[in-house]
């Protein structure tokens, strides 16, 4: 599942109240193999192998008619304009008739339902891919048409896995499949099974299964799995030979093995097994979105390794497996200068009862109690998230050392401005209209800035009290926070250039086109009506100092100054931090 892009909240303001309780109840119970934070609610997937070539064939047939049809007319039709022309509608209908009645497929049983009709999920996937190709042909890879199944998945976080794993434990990574290459690792969960073994930006191109016990080759009725078929050619599985669906099934049927990885131009072999996630009682980490270290008495990061061995119902280990390295050691925090606190934000997410900003408020109280006077804010690998949490969190740390003009409203600091294609502007300030999004509560008592509670203002005038760490995976809301803090002269950026996402998306639901989708909640199934939806770019966004709206960061990112650029590992970063605060 794709991580949500910054400013999806343009749409979420409408949807979040309906989603909030559902997500809160399910988020902690995830057992999906490719995401520690997936939700249990999922779209029921057909166990048949939907081969990519058929979908591609249908996509090629449908896309031209779809261009003139329904997506563009629904999304871009002028006010008061007419719907799709009769000819355009008929073209689409004729294409679909060809698919239904004339398209020859050698083994049609793979793609039809019990009544001999084309499986609706196959048809929907084809139409969605065609609409997505149309939108992205205009040069914006963030746009897409979502089928009802995909839209439901977007709202509720369903796993893209086609089969549940028979093995206990998880690999503790978020990944996406790149057909023809392998698995791209986007996130490695702290203290999880892959921590210190795999890294963000790894490309896993092959997996060696070292033991028959590590592979699930047949299901309970003897049907061969994708893993079983892959192992017919030996124990080395070259992922480029398989489709996305097959790779995901192979991963779910894998207990562990040797992962062959391309990393920084080198070929690396890493042994990884599934492992259980250490409990918060074990790690001392009571937060979902923040890791911090303010000295030995104020920390929630690991300083030792953990036993991650899966156990059966009797408490017996399936095998011995430990985390490879502690976070303290992995990030070289022994080199952190005295009096400097360290906070890592994993993402800008949450709900009204628990979110990254409310956690940050609590953590900064501990920062003050610890006696630290400087802060390193680590946004490396942070993909972004909720704009309200990002603006309010940045607002807590903002002080206008740069003496920017016209950047306050009712005492609140400007964090970003969105500009649409017609020049219309929407400004986001700290404490941005929270009650309409989250129903009040926590944000009703929000204080506009706490900078003077944590830092010495006089010292901040001559040298920043905050360092922000970034890398190429710091995106969206992470870039908003980085841009705001550096524009106001509050922080200095170190590390490497950010991802460079300076555009905002929204969603338009095509409410005339709804379908019934079968979903699973726990052990029961239900059918819900879900519309098709178009996800498209609507605005560019700008940092507070860019009052002329001339320097959008999309495709460019935010780059540290030369003295602090190109710092990829933590040991080099701590040397730079130490020298900066000498």
**Segments where pLDDT lies below 50 for 5+ residues?**
1-82, 158-163, 433-447
Overall mean confidence score, pLDDT? 81
Summing up helix and strand content along with how strands pair, one would put the structural category as alpha+beta
Q: Biggest β-sheet, characterized?
A: 7 strands, antiparallel
Shape: globular
Q: Provide the gyration radius in Å.
A: 25 Å
Oligomer: single chain
The proportion of strand residues reads 15-25%
Total helices: the number is: 17
Whole-Å distance between the termini? 44 Å
* Record field, number of beta strands: 18
Fraction of residues in H or I helices: 25-40%
Please describe what this structure looks like:
By secondary structure, the chain is an alpha+beta fold. Helix content is 29%, strand content 21%. Strands 1, 2, 12, 13, 14, 17 and 18 form a seven-stranded antiparallel sheet that branches. Strands 3, 4, 5, 6, 7 and 8 form a six-stranded antiparallel sheet that branches. The chain has a five-stranded mixed sheet with strand order 9-10-11-15-16, sandwiched between helices. β3 (173-178) and β4 (182-188) form a beta hairpin. The protein starts with 8 loop residues before the first helix and ends with a helix.
